[in-house]
Amino acid sequence: NGQNRPPWHVHLLGMASLLRLALCCLLLAAAAAFTAPPRTAGAALRVRMASAPSAAVAMAHHVNKKATKKHADRRPKKKSLADKNRKAPPYPVNPMALVKDTPDWSIVQKAD
Q1: How far is residue 52's CA from residue 55's CA, in Å, rounded to a whole number?
Q2: 9 CB contacts (<8 Å, ≥6 apart)?
Q3: The pLDDT value given to residue 80
């Protein structure tokens, strides 16, 4: 009769309480993953970096060009005299330029 009994800690707590205890331990371990490291670790790292300047981040000698400056730098340039002295190609007439010359509105009659 004594051999079929569960271990003493399961017998004392009950199965539901044991499951709650296991869930709490699991949540505590999961929450510990999201905590910040202790301040002493950061302070030790700063002291170590101050004592060894070679471990500090090396800065770039020059910065990279950003967006518009890089596009302007990479565009094709007119280098030969034939390119520099070439006249602009004849573009077709824009039909919207003729519409723009007409007024948008006109006076039909004067207000009283």
Answers
A1: 6
A2: 18
A3: 94
Q: By the 8 A CB rule, do 10 and 18 touch?
A: yes
* Side chain identity, residue 10: V
Report the percent of the chain where pLDDT is more than 90. Answer: 18
Rounded-to-integer distance, Cα 101 and Cα 94, Å: 12
Distance CA 56, CA 76 (A): 40
Spatial separation of the C-alpha atoms in residues 37 and 45, rounded to whole Å: 12
**For residue 66, is pLDDT > 70?**
yes
Amino acid identity, residue 86? R
Measured CA to CA, the distance from residue 45 to residue 54 in angstroms comes to 14
Which pLDDT belongs to residue 94?
A: 81
Cα angle 35-41-44, degrees, rounded to a multiple of 5: 165
- For residues 50, 53, 55, 56, the Cα torsion angle rounded to the nearest 10 degrees is 80
What residue has token string 């296991």? 22
